[in-house]
Design goal:
Number of helices: 1
Number of strands: 9
Structural class: alpha+beta
Shape: elongated
Radius of gyration: 24 Å
Order of helices and strands: HEEEEEEEEE
Strand order of the largest sheet: 3-9-8-5-6
Length: 151
C-alpha cells in the first residue's frame, strides 16, 4: 500500500491556488455588464439613466499663455437601441453650455450649478455626438463633444 505524503507547505500552496481560482472565477462572472459609463437594468422597459457633468482643463503654454478646454464627462457613453434614456447633465464648469445631439431633435442648455434632464430614445445603432454649441472647436475652447454609442 502506497501513501502520498504532503508537507505542510504543499498543502497551503494547493489551498491558496484553489482559493485564487475560486475568487477569480466568481469575480469574472459577477463583473459582466459593470461598465462605469453604462447603466444597464435587468428590468425591460425601465429608463436607462446616464449622468454627465461639464468639465474644464486649464494650463499654461511655455510662453505663459493660458489655455483651456471644456468637455463632457464621461466623454463616451453606451446606451441600448430602442430604450428610453434619461441624460442627467450637471453644470460644474462654464456658465452655460447650449447643446444638441446630432441626428436627433434633442437640444438644451446646461447651466453652472444646475442639472439639465433630457429624455431620448435612439432607434438606430451607431455613434451620436453630444455637442456644445459654444465650444465646438479648439478656437472656442473645445471641442466639447461626447460620444453616445448606441448598441
Amino acid at each position: 500500500m502506497k501513501f502520498i505524503v504532503l508537507k505542510k507547505g504543499s498543502i497551503i500552496a494547493i489551498l491558496v491556488t484553489i482559493l485564487v481560482i475560486t475568487v477569480g472565477t466568481i469575480w469574472s462572472l459577477s463583473s459582466k455588464n459593470s461598465y462605469p459609463t453604462v447603466s444597464l437594468s435587468e428590468k425591460t422597459g425601465e429608463k436607462q439613466v446616464i449622468q454627465l457633468v461639464t468639465g474644464e482643463f486649464k494650463s499654461k503654454t511655455a510662453d505663459g499663455k493660458e489655455i483651456e478646454a471644456y468637455r463632457w464627462d464621461p466623454g463616451t457613453i453606451v446606451v441600448e437601441k430602442g430604450r428610453e434614456v434619461e441624460l442627467r447633465i450637471y453644470g460644474v464648469n462654464g456658465m452655460e453650455h447650449p447643446f444638441y445631439i446630432e441626428g436627433t431633435d434633442v437640444k438644451g442648455t446646461v447651466k453652472k450649478g444646475k442639472e439639465t434632464v433630457v429624455d431620448v430614445t435612439f432607434s438606430k445603432e451607431g455613434t451620436y455626438r453630444l455637442i456644445c454649441k459654444m465650444h465646438e472647436t479648439i478656437e472656442n475652447n473645445g471641442p466639447m463633444i461626447a460620444y453616445i454609442v448606441v448598441d
